[in-house]
């Protein structure tokens, strides 16, 4: 039997075929149950509200937050949040330090040393006593107080940093203890370290120069990978889907590339060998722009991939509640499950791509001019 | 772009750079360097071990080849020696034969010469004796004959008669 051999496909196909019948059946029952038009309208608006609330929830999840909320329960005024507050550290003509609990889950205006602050969509704005924010601050980060708070993202960065330190520090120590052979959890990570060296660093940078970039490449790879994986946990962290984080990582890549670049690299940017002089003048600004586009593409690629993954996954999870029936919700659940597995792959893949491209840029920065003969 | 800038947190950006650079340096000192060094040393060790094993194998093969070569050489030498011995033996036999022959021939020639000499001497002696005897006999005969005058005269006559006929 063909069906028997492929149970998963069968289940999905069955769900697909049954879903429209049941999904259509529900509103019909509803309309029968509602006696007046008004109540029907209320129902629709109620449903609409819930959908909006879910969209809001997904939006909120993607943003950074100043407290660590593990989960919430209850509705409206009775809503309770379970989690812990984190310190808020602001620089706005002076240092302001207070607990994030004072914001009362982003609803209250906090007064500190004569300044007033409020949170809108996870970002701290300075405001007046009544909570009015300068509208320019919404689009210009420089108009906002400098926010050095230990936010959820910073907290997770520190957790991952500590995790990496313990994990790889332990691995390094196990070599000494165990006569040059990794022990424990290091056995799992050692091949990945070697993978980064043999498959990412050496082919892209070259046998001669790769050693000085290894620390950065390994740190970037595991940092992104671990944070991507944390993003898939129910803790609801989305660090690598934050543009400030990916931009910081890309800027570091950009700085290391340009600082370690040799004469040959700059020669190719400002005075391209092997083309007529007029073309060289035309090419110089294009090449220079190219160096800036490279880290920009790194920033956007990682950010967009992680945000897209989170939005899709959370939307499918939200679909379970929107369908509100066995077949539709079941189908959403299966879809969410499959997508989660895909996201685990994407988590590793994006870390790989980021590290790979970083290595590629490093490689171009320290390339020797052996391919001069190719320009004829 | 506005949306991106709207959600961009400069503080988080700066914190991330500071924390990450710090993390790189910390990990470099306490993790990456020792790990990579240990891995390198191990790989180097494995490479060396493999290389030395390969070398040992090659050496063994060389030794074996050498042994075989030596054996072959010894065998060839033995064969050559035996051949030489055989040749020497044959040559010696031949030489001895030739020498013996020569010696024999020489001896024979010598004997022949001696025999010839002896023969000649004997002949000479015989001749002498024969001549002496002949003379003696002739003397005796003559003496005898001459003592008989009649016969002598007869004979002379006869001989003289014969001479006339001539």
From TrEMBL, chain A:
Q: Which InterPro entries match?
A: ATP_synth_F0_asu (IPR000568), ATP_synth_F0_asu_AS (IPR023011), ATP_synth_F0_asu_bact/mt (IPR045083), F0_ATP_A_sf (IPR035908)
- Kindly report the protein's main subcellular placement as a broad class: membrane
Keyword terms: ATP synthesis, Cell membrane, CF(0), Hydrogen ion transport, Ion transport, Membrane, Signal, Transmembrane, Transmembrane helix, Transport
**Signal peptide feature range:** 1-25
Q: Per its UniProt record, what Pfam families does this chain match?
A: ATP-synt_A
Which locations, inside or outside the cell, does it occupy? Cell membrane; Membrane
Top-rank taxon of the source lineage equals Bacteria
List all membrane-crossing ranges. 154-172, 213-233, 239-257, 278-296, 302-321, 333-354
GO CC annotations? plasma membrane; proton-transporting ATP synthase complex
Quote one Gene Ontology molecular function term: proton-transporting ATP synthase activity, rotational mechanism
Q: What does this protein do?
A: Key component of the proton channel; it plays a direct role in the translocation of protons across the membrane.
Q: Which family does the similarity line name?
A: Belongs to the ATPase A chain family.
Q: What is this protein called?
A: ATP synthase subunit a
Q: Which organism is it from?
A: Flavobacterium croceum DSM 17960
Q: What is the lineage of its organism?
A: Bacteria, Pseudomonadati, Bacteroidota, Flavobacteriia, Flavobacteriales
TrEMBL record, chain B:
Location of the protein in the cell: Cell membrane; Endomembrane system
Q: Which UniProt keywords apply?
A: ATP synthesis, Cell membrane, CF(0), Coiled coil, Hydrogen ion transport, Ion transport, Membrane, Transmembrane, Transmembrane helix, Transport
Positions of transmembrane segments: 6-27
In alphabetical order, the GO MF annotations are: proton-transporting ATP synthase activity, rotational mechanism; proton-transporting ATPase activity, rotational mechanism
- GO terms under cellular component: endomembrane system; plasma membrane; proton-transporting ATP synthase complex
Membrane topology term reads:
Single-pass membrane protein
InterPro entries documented for this protein? ATP_synth_B-like_membr_sf, ATP_synth_b/b'su_bac/chlpt, ATP_synth_F0_bsu_bac, ATP_synthase_B_chain
Q: Does the keyword Lipoprotein apply?
A: no
Coiled-coil regions listed: 46-91
Determine if Transmembrane is one of this entry's keywords.
yes
Q: What HAMAP family does this protein's entry cite? A: ATP_synth_b_bprime (MF_01398)
User: What's the stated role of this polypeptide?
Assistant: Component of the F(0) channel, it forms part of the peripheral stalk, linking F(1) to F(0). The b'-subunit is a diverged and duplicated form of b found in plants and photosynthetic bacteria.
Q: Name the family.
A: Belongs to the ATPase B chain family.
Tell me the subunit arrangement. Answer: F-type ATPases have 2 components, F(1) - the catalytic core - and F(0) - the membrane proton channel. F(1) has five subunits: alpha(3), beta(3), gamma(1), delta(1), epsilon(1). F(0) has three main subunits: a(1), b(2) and c(10-14). The alpha and beta chains form an alternating ring which encloses part of the gamma chain. F(1) is attached to F(0) by a central stalk formed by the gamma and epsilon chains, while a peripheral stalk is formed by the delta and b chains. F-type ATPases have 2 components, F(1) - the catalytic core - and F(0) - the membrane proton channel. F(1) has five subunits: alpha(3), beta(3), gamma(1), delta(1), epsilon(1). F(0) has four main subunits: a(1), b(2) and c(10-14). The alpha and beta chains form an alternating ring which encloses part of the gamma chain. F(1) is attached to F(0) by a central stalk formed by the gamma and epsilon chains, while a peripheral stalk is formed by the delta and b chains.
Name this protein carries in UniProt:
ATP synthase subunit b
Origin organism of this chain?
Flavobacterium croceum DSM 17960
């Amino acid at each position: 039997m063909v069906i028997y051999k492929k149970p998963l496909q069968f289940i999905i196909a069955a769900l697909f075929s049954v879903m429209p019948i049941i999904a259509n059946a529900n509103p019909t029952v509803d309309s029968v149950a509602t006696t007046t038009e008004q109540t029907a309208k209320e129902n629709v608006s109620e449903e609409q509200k819930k959908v909006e609330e879910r969209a809001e929830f997904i939006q909120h999840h993607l943003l950074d937050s100043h407290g660590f909320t593990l989960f919430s329960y209850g509705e409206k005024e009775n809503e309770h949040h379970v989690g812990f507050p984190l310190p808020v550290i602001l620089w706005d003509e002076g240092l302001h330090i207070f607990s994030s609990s004072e914001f009362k889950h982003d609803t209250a205006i906090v007064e500190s040393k004569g300044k007033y602050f409020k949170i809108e969509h996870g970002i701290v704005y300075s405001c007046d006593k009544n909570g009015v924010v300068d509208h320019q601050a919404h689009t210009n980060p420089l108009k906002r107080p400098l926010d050095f708070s230990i936010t959820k993202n910073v907290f997770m960065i520190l957790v991952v940093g500590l995790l990496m330190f313990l994990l790889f520090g332990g691995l390094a120590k196990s070599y000494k203890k165990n006569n040059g052979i990794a022990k424990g959890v290091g056995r799992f990570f050692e091949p990945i370290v070697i993978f980064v060296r043999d498959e990412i660093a050496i082919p892209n940078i070259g046998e001669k120069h790769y050693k000085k970039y290894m620390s950065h490449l390994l740190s970037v790879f595991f940092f992104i990978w671990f944070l991507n994986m944390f993003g898939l946990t129910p803790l609801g962290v989305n660090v690598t889907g934050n543009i400030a984080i990916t931009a910081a990582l890309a800027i570091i890549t950009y700085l290391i590339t340009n600082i370690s670049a040799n004469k040959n690299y700059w020669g190719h940017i400002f005075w391209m060998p092997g083309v007529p002089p007029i073309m060289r003048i035309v090419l110089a600004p294009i090449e220079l722009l190219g160096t800036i586009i490279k880290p920009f593409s790194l920033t956007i690629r990682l950010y967009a991939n992680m945000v897209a993954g989170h939005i899709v996954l959370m939307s499918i999870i939200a679909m379970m509640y929107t369908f509100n029936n066995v077949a539709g919700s079941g189908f959403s659940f299966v879809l969410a499950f499959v997508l989660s597995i895909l996201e685990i792959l994407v988590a590793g893949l994006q870390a790989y791509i980021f590290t790979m491209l970083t290595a590629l840029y490093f490689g171009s920065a320290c390339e020797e001019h052996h391919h001069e003969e190719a320009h004829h | 772009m506005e949306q991106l800038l709207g959600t961009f947190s400069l503080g988080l950006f700066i914190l991330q750079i500071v924390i990450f650079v710090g993390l790189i340096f910390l990990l470099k000192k306490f993790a990456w360097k020792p790990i990579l060094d240990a891995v390198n040393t191990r790989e180097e060790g494995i490479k060396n071990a493999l290389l030395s094993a390969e070398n040992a194998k090659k050496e063994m093969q060389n030794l074996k080849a050498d042994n075989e070569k030596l054996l072959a050489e010894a065998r060839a030498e033995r064969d050559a020696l035996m051949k030489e011995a055989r040749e020497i033996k044959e040559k010696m036999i031949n030489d001895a034969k030739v020498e013996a022959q020569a010696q024999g021939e020489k001896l024979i020639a010598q004997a022949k010469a001696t025999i010839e000499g002896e023969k000649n001497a004997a002949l000479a002696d015989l001749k002498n004796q024969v001549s002496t005897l002949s003379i003696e006999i002739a003397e005796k005969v003559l003496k005898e004959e001459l003592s008989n005058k009649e016969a002598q005269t007869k004979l002379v006559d006869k001989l003289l008669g014969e001479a006339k006929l001539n």
